[in-house]
Amino acid sequence: MPERKILTGISADAFVSEADRWALDKLKKVPLLPMVIRKFYEVGFDRWFYCMNMSMSVRCGPDQYSTLYRIMQESCRVLDMPEPELYLSSNPFPNAFAGGVERPYITLRSGIVNNLTDEQLYHLMGHELGHIKANHVLYFSVGGVLFALLDLLGRRTLGASDLASYALILAYYEWSRQAEFSADRAGLLVAQELGISLDTQVALTAGATRFDHEMKREPFMDQARAYQDADVLDQVAKAVLFMIYGKTFTHPMPVHRAQDLERWHLSGAYDRILAGDYSREAKAA
Predict the structure, then answer these.
(1) Residue 164: which domain range?
(2) 41: buried, middle or exposed (CB in 10 Å: 19+, 13-18, 0-12)?
(3) Potential cystine with 155: which of 50, 51, 161, 272 (Cβ 3.0-4.6 Å)?
(4) Could you tell me the pTM of the whole model?
């Protein structure tokens, strides 16, 4: 693949979606949120998470899993951002996450590394770096212990606790889903080839099998379009599914993510960014 373009000075505003901004603004307006964030810091959850992650994972570097570290380094150069710490943990369930409000880090599970090619790992790394650059980590970290924080605050503190808690929980889940679309765009900006990013989504949706060589991108995109263009009865079923289950999903459904990324690419926004037309971070005085 040709050398990746470096997006000097790029701001998160270049790839954060309007739906992400809207949902985060809605989350911030929930009166209970500031109290929950204060309790998060008071208890020291951020330090706990950092120490737990370090104690159960292997930190990557120039002399430790150097390929993964090199992919992260190059991805950081593309997005013009400081390098977080990078860890690898043993877990067959494919996943990765960004953490550390004060000391950012990315942790890759062994299952996701085994499931993706090196080129697909660039999309994954860009996705996680996008969360860090867009300042998603605080809200993800709070969300990870939201129920515990609500219990710590207690009913007397919350007043109308059930209603206030439910509003915060729903607003959090809505935002967390929208944040994934923004991070997928950051993944594409690092991968710098739509096919690689879409193949990553297919690979993560299907999982690793001995038939990986038979995986095809376009049939999956046809599937995503068919889901989007379902008939009236299926649309009702989708609405019911969302009301029962989907509203508390932390991630959008894979077909939605693939189609949203394709639409963003087709809108011309990706090409404009690669050509240098993007919002830049304000320079320090």
Answers:
(1) 12-274
(2) middle
(3) 161
(4) 0.91
Q: Are the C-beta atoms of 72 and 61 separated by less than 8 Å? A: no
Helices (H), the chain: 18-28, 33-43, 45-56, 66-79, 110-115, 118-133, 137-144, 146-158, 161-191, 194-206, 217-228, 232-244, 254-266, 269-274
Contacts made by residues 205-214, CB under 8 angstroms, sequence distance 24+: 205/254, 207/94, 207/115, 208/94, 208/111, 208/114, 208/115
Question: Does residue 255 lie within any of the structural domains?
Answer: yes
In-domain check, residue 155: yes
Task: Determine the pLDDT at residue 249.
Answer: 63
Q: Give the model confidence (pLDDT) of 133-188 as tens digits.
A: 999 999 999 999 988 888 887 754 555 457 778 888 889 999 999 999 999 999 99
Between 242 and 106, where is the model more confident?
Answer: 106
Nearest to 109 by CA among 68, 143, 146, 51: 68
Q: What span, in angstroms and rounded, lies between the C-alpha atoms of 23 and 167? A: 13
| SS3 state of residue 202 | helix
**Residue 247 is assigned to a structural domain of this protein:** yes
Structural domain total, the chain: 1
At residue 87, φ and ψ (nearest 5 deg) are -130, 155
Give a yes or no: residue 63 inside a domain.
yes
Token pair 């189609």 is at which residue? 259
